[in-house]
Amino acid sequence: MSAPSEELARLTVLVCELMTQSYISLAFHVFYVYYFTTTLIEEVITMWPHQWMAGKILFFVMRYGPLLRIVQMALLETRFYITFTPKTCSSLFISSFATHMVYTYATEVALLICIHALLGSKRKYLVLLGIAYAVPTACILRSQSIWIKEFSRARPIDPLDVELGYSCTWAVAVDAQVIQADRVIKYVSVAKASCTAILALAVYYKRYRGRTGKLIKIVNRDGGVQLFLLAGIYFVLTMIETSRPGLSYITKVCIKKYRTILSPILTCRLLLNIQKVADPAARSVVSAMLFAPLPQSEDFDRFDHHLPINSRPVTGAGS
């Protein structure tokens, strides 16, 4: 095959990959906007009355962070036929990555706190859990700083990108340092995912093992469904990414979109359900760290919003 033919084939594959990524991203983004709008009333009822504690802060970071990143990524990936300067492209990429990191780590922190609550552990064990989480996370952040420095480099817009309608052209040169940083990120991520899965199994062993009857109802009420899904999918996807470097492009994009779109949704659902936990030990942790108990009147109002109209208490002259 001649050099021009090889170049044409390479460009054809590149354009197909970019188009595929755009369509997959659009599907996930539309789904998130739909989910956000259809659950906005639930958010107002269940979250807005709470004081600003860890639970409410984490919830809003995870809920609104993806919206901000959708806008940022739309500017970078959507064909608007608008040209940005290299500095603008780099700034957008870094800000998008920072947004993603903030709410991604918020999902991990929320998951660990909920695991701690469902285990009913003492505060000192949460400190140990926090240290065990912070050390590998610091290693990942250090490696990610190397990765982001290289992948955020932009150069003057390429004529092909102008014709295709993209706003930026990237000047990525993957060297040995970037490859090593990526390897560190993968190995440490496997360790974190494995520990999270083990903790999720500990929750099952302590809270749900031996339960009969309405086990599914209890697990769903406590947020156990979301917890096990988050821990299980996190572990499986991390193992797939690490053990199979030759994944197809579509698979890589779908895994990426799960982490950026679906994982925050599941964690927000977990925070909503963790408020319903009935175990006294878990309730004390939830009240102390995530959500302070609401006044009785506000709690009743929240419940009353979910009652059918004809079953709500009637007040008036005859009451």
UniProtKB/TrEMBL annotation:
<feature type="transmembrane region" description="Helical">
    <location>
        <begin position="187"/>
        <end position="205"/>
    </location>
</feature>
<feature type="transmembrane region" description="Helical">
    <location>
        <begin position="225"/>
        <end position="242"/>
    </location>
</feature>
<feature type="transmembrane region" description="Helical">
    <location>
        <begin position="97"/>
        <end position="119"/>
    </location>
</feature>
<dbReference type="InterPro" id="IPR045340">
    <property type="entry name" value="DUF6533"/>
</dbReference>
<feature type="transmembrane region" description="Helical">
    <location>
        <begin position="125"/>
        <end position="143"/>
    </location>
</feature>
<keyword id="KW-1133">Transmembrane helix</keyword>
<keyword id="KW-0472">Membrane</keyword>
<feature type="transmembrane region" description="Helical">
    <location>
        <begin position="12"/>
        <end position="37"/>
    </location>
</feature>
<dbReference type="Pfam" id="PF20151">
    <property type="entry name" value="DUF6533"/>
</dbReference>
<protein>
    <recommendedName>
        <fullName>DUF6533 domain-containing protein</fullName>
    </recommendedName>
</protein>
<keyword id="KW-0812">Transmembrane</keyword>
<feature type="domain" description="DUF6533">
    <location>
        <begin position="23"/>
        <end position="68"/>
    </location>
</feature>
